[in-house]
Amino acid sequence: MEESYHKWYSPAIGRDFEMLVFGYGGQPVILFPTSKGSYYQNKDQGLIDAVSWFVDNGKVKIYCPDSIDADSWYNKSVEPAVRAYNHTRYDMLILEEVVSRAQNETGYHKVATAGCSFGGYHAVNFAFRHPEFCSYCFPMSGAFDMKQFMDGYYDDNVYYNNPLDFIPNDNNPDLWNMGIVLGTAEFDSCREDNERLSGILHQKNIQHWLDIRPNANHDWPIWKEMFPHYLSLIK
Questions:
Q1: Is 150 helix (H, G, I), strand (E, B) or coil?
Q2: Which positions ≥6 away from 149 have C-beta within 8 Å?
Q3: Which structural domains are found in the chain, ordered by start?
Q4: Is the whole-model pTM more than 0.90?
Q5: Most exposed among 53, 106, 144, 230, judged by the fewest C-beta atoms under 10 Å?
Q6: DSSP 8-state secondary structure symbol assigned to residue 95
Q7: What is the tens place of the pLDDT at every residue in 135-183?
Q8: Would you say 3 and 39 are in contact if contact means Cβ atoms under 8 Å apart?
């Protein structure tokens, strides 16, 4: 499998940033890591190997960016306002430095987003904030309410990075053109968040698939079953 490592200075976050890229062409997929995970986590956990056929056959090119969760939502050493602001900077990084690279390298205008657990949050938050740049969204066991990290604080940066809050009021027409799968499991700790988001999408008549896998938990084995299935839906 073709693999490349990238490291650059990111203007958005003011420091170096790292990413792995797999494949040589096809639909670009931004695959986020789980909570505070590294750019190599999805490779190390076998998620990339699980979709090797799609990569090797030029169906998808997968971009695995690092996370800055330890500086944003999980950073208890700074005020809640700073946590939310830091995530907004990360969103800018993904848009201006990762999506733009993927567009230039693949020739596609729109990317797909995916991720497991907290990576599912990143996939949904980015795709629904920027649907004009996203063709598909494949969160797996995502959690979607960031107010749990805010100690009661709330501002625009919290609102616009909290999918359960901003999506009900989001009427960007590109939302109705996105392929959306909300992957979760029968015994998933994040199942309720996925059901809540599904309810919001139903109210807005946004087509999607709430995929609840039976007899499964919030863990890598079910995500390695989900991810190739979801990539097979890309047209």
A1: coil
A2: 73, 74, 80, 83
A3: 3-231 (3.40.50.1820)
A4: yes
A5: 53
A6: I
A7: 999 999 999 999 999 999 999 999 999 999 999 999 999 999 999 999 9
A8: no
